[in-house]
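One-letter codes give the sequence; backbone shape is given numerically. An example follows:

. . .
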Amino acid sequence: MLRKLIYSLLLCCLPLAAGATEPVVLDRILVVVGDDAITQLELDQRMSAVVKQLQKQGTQLPENGVLEKQVLERMITELLQTQFAKESGLRVDDAQLEKALGRIAQQNKFESVAAFRAKLEKEGIDFKKFREEIRGEMVSVRLREREVDSKLVISENDVDNYLSNQERQEGHGEELQLAHILVVVPEQATSDKILGYRKRAEQALAKLRGGAPFAQVAAGFSDAQDALSGGELGWRPADRLPPLFSEPLLKMKPGEVSEILRSPSGFHIIKLLDRRSKDAPVVIVQTHARHILIKTSELVSENEAKNRLQEIKTRIDKGADFAEQARLHSEDGSAPQGGDLGWLSPGETVPEFEGAMDALKVGQVSGLVQSGFGWHLIQVLERRNTDVTVEQKRQRARAAIRAFKSDEAFQDWLRQLRDRTLVEYRDADK
């Protein structure tokens, strides 16, 4: 924060150019966020990148002032998460970042990160900034896993009620392609403020009813993380949607837009892009695994957790019993069972864990694996091919409930994070 303040003051105090009557302000602080700030130059640079992204997608640009406000709010949310991650000891090191960039390059069909970088720079994208944006996204994902997903509780009654509701609904064998707009309502918002947010959602809906492209309106009005990608949610099983969305969607045809829907997070507008029948999987590969988890926290740094787990792995490599080491040292709820996680289906664990587990042979112990929860050792005990059963149906229901609860809880967590952090706008127009 102090660095940016001094930098902005220096820029404001540059000598007058020949013939000029007033100094030219090259940069200024727009918003103070906790112990840091966002400057006009940073906003301009992000705006330039966003405009290029929207143009590349063929998305019609919203009004500049509307888009600028959206981008600034996104930057505030990112900075809040970055600060919290730093304070709580969560970080993504360069090695982890390079692995992620390698996966992104492969997904975009580039042979190497260097080739991917060359392509981005040819399109005028600053690779260093792109790299740090990816780091920020990884931090956000890990924060969500640690602060939200790991604390969700799904009861058997939740699953029973969900399945019962789905049996009564039509269309539970379908998949729906969706896009959405979310206008977030802060947790402590007054009734007047809530009315203002409602009017903003009504403005977005009016533009859609008037024929404006959904992607353009999403970019200009939505507070969701996917706003600048046109608000697209992709294909979602109808039975994994909350009733708030699934009930109006049952009556909608592809291309139609919902009325304004109210949830604890704010106001939603849903567009049904397409629908298709869904075939249930016949056979899935399940893995019986166990693990040892050492968590990171404000008191335990990444290095401390990693070093503790490395000592445990060394003992196991020398013949110590994995289950006994899990009972003694693991900080997961599975510790009393020797770290046994039971039979795991695809998608039940976070991607870092599942990827490492899937790469193991039966009986093999992994190297040290990092996720948003901390550092893991994983051992695969068995694998089996399993027909879809009642158990699998319940697991899919559990995943659907978790996805919905996670979205709601993450929005609540972001609101609370903002409520307890100083966010001061230095420019009233922003």
Residues 172 and 239 are 5 Å apart (CA to CA). Residues 5-14 have pLDDT under 50 and may be disordered.
